[in-house]
Amino acid sequence: MDNRSEYFVFVPFCLMAQAFQAQGIVKYEWKSSIKPFMNLLVENDINIVQMPCIEASYNNSLIREPKGLSKYDTEDFNKHCETLALKVASQIIEVSKNYKVIAILGIEQSPSCCVNYIYTNKGMEKRKGLFMKKLYEKIKDLKIPIIGINRKYINKSLNELEDIIKAKTCR
Fold first, then answer.
1. Are 111 and 131 in contact (CB under 8 A)?
2. How does DSSP classify residue 140?
3. Residues near 87 by Cβ (< 8 Å), separated by ≥ 6?
4. Which of 41, 31, 48, 10 is nearest to 144 (CA)?
5. Up-side HSE of residue 139: CA atoms within 13 Å toward CB?
6. CA distances (Å), 3 to each of 6, 7, 27, 169, in order?
7. Distance separating alpha carbons of residues 104 and 93, to the nearest angstrom
8. What confidence score (pLDDT) does residue 130 get?
9. Whole-structure pTM value
């Protein structure tokens, strides 16, 4: 008998590797903002799939200045997001054939990976990031919860993920 876990969560690259975030973005200690999510997934035997870093792969560099939505919302960057969203969506669809993808995580305020809220030149807006919007359009029929992590105020999204894990895995 195969004892591998049947549950998967897809996470943004920077959730597991904060060095991939733009310079000056990491203002909260890894242990307090990221570790609780990773611990929750590991403790519940959830497979973790790291999605590509959209911005680092576009810039071909780990070292980059932060850019807002208006700087990334270009034809070239949107094509890049579309290409990566197709790849990630294909992977999610393939995994979903034999396993349970119980959640996808995003990072709030990211121009690429936010789920709910992003800063724009008009202030805070309710909207998905450029990559997350394209990914959502490709997998929306799968009805997988997408949770936005606010690194400063993690309890709400941590509790949401915990509730999903409990409901899906009956633990």
1. no
2. G
3. 52
4. 10
5. 28
6. 9, 12, 39, 15
7. 13
8. 96
9. 0.87
